[in-house]
Structures are given as C-alpha cells and as structure tokens.
Amino acid sequence: MADTWPEDHRVEKCLLFVGFMADTWPEDHRVEKCLLFGGFMADTWPEDHRVEKCLLFGGFMADTWPEDHRVEKCLLFVGFMADTWPEDHRVEKCLLFGGFMADTWPEDHRVEKCLLFGGFMADTWPEDHRVEKCLLFVGFMADTWPEDHRVEKCLLFGGFMADTWPEDHRVEKCLLFGGFMADTWPEDHRVEKCLLFGGFMADTRPEDHRVEKCLLFGGFMADTRPEDHRVEKCLLFVGFMADTRPEDHRVEKCLLFGGFMADIWPEHHRVEKCLLFGGFMADTWPEDHRVEKCLLFVGFMADTWPEDHRVEKCLLFGGFMADTRPEDHRVEKCLLFGGFMADTWPEDQRVEKCLLFVGFMADTWPEDHRVEKCLLFGGFMGDTWPEDHRVEKCLLFGGFMADTRPEDHRVVGSNFTCGRRVTVGMFQCFTELANCGSSSQDTSRSEHKYLKAIYQDPSGVDF
C-alpha cells in the first residue's frame, strides 16, 4: 500500500514496478524504454510482444490476455476478475490498469499520453480519455467519477467510500488525491499548480493550495498536517499513524514521506530533487539527505539505515527484516533494493543506468550489477539468482516458487523470463502484516498459505 508518486521521470531508460495493493504511479512518463511487471496467479500470458518500446506483464487471476501488442508505445495491465477488456490498443503512449471486479471498461483509448487505473468494485468508468497527459486512478466503492479530463497534466486519485468527486479538472498541472471516508472534496481546481488533501479520518484539510507545482498529503489517522506548503516543485506526505510531520518543506523539487508507526522523521530536507521516506516501525531515520537527484528509503523493521546518500541520480532502498544495508551507493542513475528476509545484500552497485532488485525470501543476491541499461529482479522463494546481467537494454526476472534462474542474459531488447506464477516482492508483505497488526502473528504458516490468504480474500484486509 505504498503511495509513491514520483514527480518527474525524465529518464532515458525507465522501469515501472507495480505490485499488489501498491499505489505507485508516476505522473510523467517521458521515458524511452519502459517495462512494467506485475501479477499473481495469472492464467495465461501473451506470446508475442513485438512492441517497439514497452512490455507489460501483469494480472491476478485474469481471464484473458491480448495476443498482439504491436503498438508503438503502449502498456496494458489487466487486473482481477475484470468482466471485459478492450480489444483495440492502438494508442501512442498509454497505460491501462484494470481493477478488481470492475463492471465496465472503456472501449477507446486513443489518447496521446494517458494512464488509466481501475479500482475495486468501481461503479462506472469514464469513456473518453482524450487527454494530453493524464492519470486517472479510481478507488474503492466510489459513488461517482468525473466525465471530463481535458487537462494538460493531471492526476486523479480515487479514494475509499469518497462522497463526491469534482467534475471539472481544467488545470494546468494538478494532482488529486482521494482518501478513505473523506468528508468533502474541493469542486474548483482552477489553480496554476494544485494540491488536494485526502486521507483516512484526517483532522484538517488545507485551505490554500497556491503552490507552484504540486503537494499531496494523505495518511491514516495522522495527527498533524503542515500549514505551509510553499514548495517549489512537489511534496508528498503519506503515513499510517505517523507520529510527527516536519514543519518546513522548502525543498527545491520533491519530498515524499510515508511510513507505518515510524518513530521519528527528519527535520531538514534540503534535497535538490526528490526524497522519499517510508517504513514500518523503522528505528532511525537519517538526518541529512543532501542528495543530488533522488533518494527513496523504505523498509519494514529495518535495523539500520545508511547515513550518507551522496548519490548522483537516484537510490531506492526497501526490504522486509533485512539485516544490513550497503554503505556505498555511488550509482550513476538509479538503484532499487528490496527483499523479504534476504540474507545478504551487495555492497557495490556501480551500475550505469538502473538496477532494481526485489525478492521474497531470496537466498542470495548477485554481487556485480554492471549492467548497461536496466535490470529488474523479483521472485517468491527463488532458489538461485543469476550472476551475470550484461544486458544491453532491459531484463525482467520474476517468478513464484521458481526453482532456477538462467545464468546468462545477454539480450538486446526488453526480454522477460519468469515462471508461470509471478509475484512482485516486498510490497505484498505489507498487506498481510498490516492486517495482523501485532508481533504475535502465526509464523508457523507457510508462505504459500500466507499469500493465499491475501489474494483469496483481499476485501478482508483491515487497514
């Protein structure tokens, strides 16, 4: 349930990671090559992915998958128990994410740059998405949905049992975040750069959103909200029963804070581009985040956090009960680390472009990631991991209880290799653990039953 929204993704080679119940949607996708991985217990997988730029894998017990993806720049993500699926995906740059028990789906997605995310038991879906750069996120049991999205750069996030939704989003650059049982929603977003507050039983909502770019605030029973959001670019605060919030967010580009029962929050965030903090019962947080571009820290009961994050572009850390964190993150572009009870972590990640590591109870991790462009690793109880990842463009690895991993992946384009059942790693563990809510959970259950309980009755997850 990570609410992770990066503001700017003007990267040459990009990787989009979407899990189960993870609300992670970038606002701008000016990427040259992109890969989206997701899905659990998918029945069938497409056989032909002759796409020029992008490849998508995903679905949770999805009935059917399209067979032909000869689109210029298109990504289609199907969901869980969706009744119908569109047949024509001749879009220039589009991402469609299906939801859970959605009644209807739009038939025409001839949009220039659009991302549509389906929700959970949503009543209706908009039919026209001819927007230039738009992201629509629908929620859970929302009553109404806006019909007109003629916005230049807009993000709409639906909530849970939200009462009303605005009808007009003619804003230049706007972000709309819905909450859980939120009382009211603003009706007018004719602001230069808009900010909407939403959460679960949040006490207050800000009245003035005269921010230059965007600020998103949301949380679950958060105690306080900052009063001044005069940030230059973007600031996002999300948390679950977080104790405190910093008062001054005069950051140049973007700062995202989120966590579950995090003890402390840093007071000084003079970052140049972007910083994301989140965790579950994390002990400590670093105080100085003078990073040049972006730093993301996420963990669940993580013991330690590195103190120096002087990375050139981006570093993302995440894990579940990970023992150690590497101390040196001199990566050139981006590094994502995550895992569930992972034993070891590499110390040197001198990668040229991007490296994403995600796993669930993975035994080992490779030590050398000198890849040229991008590498995504994920799996559930995977026994082995490849040692050589000299790929030219992009490689995605994932599987559910996969026994082996190939050793050599010298591929030229965007390739995908996985087992029949696929999982996406650490983001799923937050669901069940938030449901348990105590340290007395039954650890004797097998991990297969652990995930089975999550997916068979997702509506029973208590947040």
Shape: globular
Roughly what percent helix? under 10%
Q: Which ranges are low-confidence, i.e. pLDDT below 50, for 5 or more consecutive residues?
A: 1-463
- Average pLDDT score: 34
The rounded Rg comes to 21 Å
The strand order across the widest sheet is 12-13-14-15-16-17-18-19-20-21-22-23
Order of helices and strands: EEEEEEEEEEEEEEEEEEEEEEEHH
How much of the sequence lies in strands comes to: 15-25%
Summarize the structure in words.
With 463 residues, the protein is mainly beta. It has 2 domains: 1-183, no CATH class; 311-463, no CATH class. Helix content is 5%, strand content 22%. The chain contains 2 helices and 23 strands. The protein has helices at 426-436, 447-456, and strands spanning 3-4, 16-17, 23-24, 34-37, 54-57, 74-77, 93-97, 113-117, 133-137, 153-157, 173-176, 195-197, 214-220, 234-240, 254-257, 274-280, 294-300, 314-317, 334-337, 354-357, 374-377, 394-398, 414-418. The strands form 4 sheets. A 12-stranded parallel β-sheet has the order 12-13-14-15-16-17-18-19-20-21-22-23, with no helix packed on it. Strands 6-7-8-9-10-11 form a 6-stranded parallel β-sheet, with no helix packed on it. A 3-stranded parallel β-sheet has the order 2-4-5, with no helix packed on it. Helix 1 packs across helix 2 (447-456). The radius of gyration is 21 Å and the shape is globular. The model is unreliable at 1-463 (pLDDT under 50).
